[in-house]
Amino acid sequence: MVDWSWLDEAGIHDIYVRTNLVEEGLERNTANNMAYRQIFVHAKPTITTIGAANVTSNSATLNGSLDGLGTASSVEFSFEWGLHTTYGNETTPQTMDVTGYFSGNLTSLASNTTYHFRAKAVGDGIAYGDDVTFTTCILGDADMDGDVDVFDWVRLRSILMGLEP
Ligand SMILES: [Ca+2]
Ligand SMILES: [Ca+2]
Q1: Rounded to the nearest whole angstrom, what is the distance from the C-alpha of residue 144 to the centroid of ligand 2?
Q2: Distance CA 128, CA 81 (A)
Q3: Tens digit of pLDDT for each residue in 73-94?
Q4: CA of 156 to the centre of ligand 1 (A)
Q5: What is the DSSP track for 13-70?
Q6: Is residue 83 located within the same domain as residue 121?
Q7: Is residue 63 part of a domain?
Q8: pLDDT single digits (tens) 94-109
Q9: What is the C-alpha to C-alpha distance for residues 125 and 71, in angstroms, rounded to an integer?
Q10: CATH number, domain at 111?
Q11: pTM for the whole structure
């Protein structure tokens, strides 16, 4: 007679719901017709929000790294981003099956605006990197010193004439 009584143990079910890291399994030994309880440990991916690069008045590249896959064989990574730490936007998820750097491009941003973002990885559980901010440039701020004045026009003129990169 197989003993199924452990399936009703409320305490184990509570652990699963609370942490989402431990899962119950059942192995049936056909030799003696007994069932054995198994516990599978699920490890979330580990991930880092590195920062933003190539920030212009309306675009930026977001960088992050997948430091560990956890117990998943592949991980879907993306970036959550927005004006606040509630984010509200997410880049298209991409699949990674090895650790390494990844990036996402944002376009059509508002100028002179601070954005929040964090890396996200979905494997055996969901992992988030720390919140990082960047501020888009002021439109017309050619020398990127935070204001628009006559020096920006001088710089813009030099760029257009091919005297400066
Ligand atoms: Ca300027
Ligand atoms: Ca200036």
Answers
A1: 8
A2: 12
A3: 999 999 999 999 999 999 999 9
A4: 10
A5: HHHHHHHS-EEEEEEEETTTTEEEEEEEE----EEEEEEEES--SS-EEEEEEEEE-T
A6: yes
A7: yes
A8: 999 999 999 999 999 9
A9: 9
A10: 2.60.40.10
A11: 0.71
User: Which stretches of the chain score pLDDT less than 70?
Assistant: 1-40
Name the token pair of 112. Answer: 């002179």
Range of the domain at 25: 5-41
| Structural domains counted in the chain | 2
**Ligand 1 centroid to residue 115 C-alpha, Å:** 21
Q: Are residues 50 and 31 in the same domain?
A: no
Do 16 and 95 fall within a single domain?
no
Ligand nearest to the CA of 144: 1
84 and 112 belong to one structural domain: yes
Q: How far is the centre of ligand 1, averaged over its atoms, from the C-alpha of 108 (Å)? A: 21
